[in-house]
Amino acid sequence: MTTWEELERSCLSCTKCPISKDRTNVVIGDGNKNAKLMFIGEAPGEEEDKQGKPFVGRAGKLLDLALDALELSRENDFYICNILKCRPPNNRVPTEYEAQNCLPYLRAQVKLVQPKIIVCLGATAMKYILGRNLKITQDRGKWFQKGEFHIMATYHPAALLRDPSKREDFYRDLKSVKEKLKEMIQF
Q1: 89 close to 18: Cβ distance less than 8 angstroms
Q2: How big is the CA angle at 79 (ends 73 and 168), to the nearest 5 degrees?
Q3: pLDDT tens figures, 139-177
Q4: Are 30 and 68 in contact (CB under 8 A)?
Q5: What does the pLDDT look like over 115-147, one tens digit per residue?
Q6: Spatial distance between the Cα atoms of 126 and 55, rounded to a whole number of angstroms
Q7: In 30-127, which ranges are E strands?
Q8: pLDDT (average), residues 34-40
Q9: Which residues are in the Uracil-DNA glycosylase-like domain (predicted)?
Q10: Which residues are 152's β-sheet partners?
Q11: How far is Cα 183 from Cα 176, in angstroms, rounded to an integer?
Q12: Out of 1-5, 8-12, 93-97, 99-103, which region has the weakest mean confidence (pLDDT)?
């Protein structure tokens, strides 16, 4: 999968997991395909499955509000996608089997976008991008370097809907991302 067309064709025809049978749409990604900033979440939800775009439900609207406040837009400043490309039943956490089947698509997306900064939205994205021994409550907001990527994990916006006390940390993390992005663009 060395082109967007190949990636999209592969994702659209994928039947590796049983969840592919119940999908309405494959949710590949959205935003600027040449962005220096990439957000990675867990999996599509109900609204994402209906529309075929990531982060368009309530959590996505909250994320958009925070990023708009920082003057970051999907069209210009970032690309956004998920570990899984199909919605798990009842929005449950992806199984290891499902995640492992979708990770090659995510790796292809990262290669095609070539971001400098990756933001993991939530524990599932953090687990598959940064490793299994980290905890979102302890390790969110910290910068990690993996190869040429600067990576940070923060709360998934859906967590903020359940627990508004996390909003301040989330917004502080996003401000740190914006500062890092400014730093990297200047070089």
Answers
A1: no
A2: 60
A3: 999 999 999 999 999 999 999 999 999 999 999 999 999
A4: no
A5: 999 999 999 999 999 987 899 999 999 999 999
A6: 17
A7: 30-31, 37-41, 78-82, 117-121
A8: 97
A9: 28-175
A10: 119, 143
A11: 11
A12: 1-5
By the 10 Å C-beta count (0-12 exposed, 13-18 middle, 19+ buried), 91 is classed as: middle
**Pairing relation of β-strands 117-121 and 78-82?**
unpaired
Q: How far is CA 163 from the centre of its chain?
A: 20
Q: Are 177 and 38 in contact (CB under 8 A)?
A: no
- What average pLDDT is seen over the chain? 96
For residue 60, give the amino acid letter: G
- Residue with the two structure tokens 């292809």: 108
Tokens for 76, please give them: 């210009």
Token couple for 142: 């910290």
CATH no. for 4-182: 3.40.470.10
Q: What is the pTM of this model?
A: 0.96
CB contact at 8 A, 48 and 84: no
Do the beta carbons of residue 60 and residue 34 sit within 8 Å? no
